[in-house]
Specification:
Layout lengths: L1 H32 L5 H6 L1 E7 L5 E11 L2 E5 L2 H6 L8 E5 L2 E5 L5 E9 L2 E4 L7 E5 H4 L11 E7 L2 E14 L2 E6 L5 H6 L1 E7 L2 E6 L5 E8 L2 E5 L7 E4 L1
Antiparallel strand pairs: 1-2, 1-8, 2-3, 4-5, 5-6, 6-7, 7-8, 9-10, 9-16, 10-11, 12-13, 13-14, 14-15, 15-16
Length: about 240
């Protein structure tokens, strides 16, 4: 009887240990993808062109915010897998400390990139073949400069104007331009409390008075920008 009780206790301890390991893994995964996305994550969302050094081989990878296994989801068209066979097993992506990793379903990094200039990533030399990533806007020569953004803009939600702002050509600080918000803005805008703006990697970045809070927008057609990620309240910024 004593031996049986001892065996049962050991089984229970092993069961509790296994359960703890499972819960630790779930907690870790949640911490990676369940937490609010960082600005580094948001800055990668959307389409990026991957190319070899000669740029005679290219394809478009779309980075998404949704969790996917050990990282976040991405769209990798079949032509990408054909053009670059060594990335056919890529299933997700992660970014930390400016290191972008394309990983397989088990979390193994198949390619690692480092940012060499604003909006341009270069693969680590340990991978052998050299690859580059740049935003689609930059690759197509459509990267906007601040002077193209000066003027009056309207925030739209569900085809309804909810706020008007003026992007000014004066400095708000050493890294951003000033803006003016007109009276009568929706609470969505006033709660965000915009204080300035800048361009980054072909994206329009709206800065808040709240520390480290930003909204990012990507151009979907000329002078029509949508917030990324969309979230539960899709928001457009349209030039007047």
């Amino acid at each position: 009887m004593a031996a049986a009780a001892h065996v049962n206790k050991m089984r229970m301890r092993l069961y509790l240990l296994a359960l703890a390991l499972v819960l630790a893994g779930v907690t870790s995964a949640t911490a990676q993808t369940g937490a609010p996305p960082s600005d580094a994550v948001n800055s990668m969302l959307g389409g990026w062109e991957m190319s070899n050094a000669d740029r005679d081989k290219t394809c478009i990878i779309t980075f998404k915010i949704d969790p996917a296994g050990p990282g976040r989801a991405l769209e990798l068209p079949n032509e990408c897998r054909t053009t670059f066979p060594n990335i056919k097993d890529i299933a997700a992506w992660t970014i930390d400390n400016d290191a972008l990793r394309l990983i397989d379903a088990r979390g193994t990094a198949l390619l690692e990139f480092n940012e060499v200039e604003n909006g341009m990533f270069e693969s680590a030399h340990s991978t052998g073949t050299l690859y580059f990533l740049q935003t689609v806007a930059a690759a197509q020569g459509q990267k906007h400069t601040p002077d193209q953004m000066f003027g009056s803009w309207t925030f739209m939600r569900q085809n309804k104007a909810i706020c008007q702002i003026t992007l000014m050509d004066t400095a708000a600080d050493t890294d951003s331009f000033a803006l003016e918000t007109k009276p009568g803005c929706d609470q969505l805008i006033t709660r965000f409390a915009p204080r300035g703006w800048r361009m980054d990697r072909g994206q329009f970045v709206l800065l808040s008075t709240k520390a480290d809070v930003v909204w990012r927008f990507e151009e979907e057609e000329t002078n029509n920008w949508h917030r990324i990620p969309e979230g539960r309240q899709p928001l457009l910024l349209v030039k007047q």
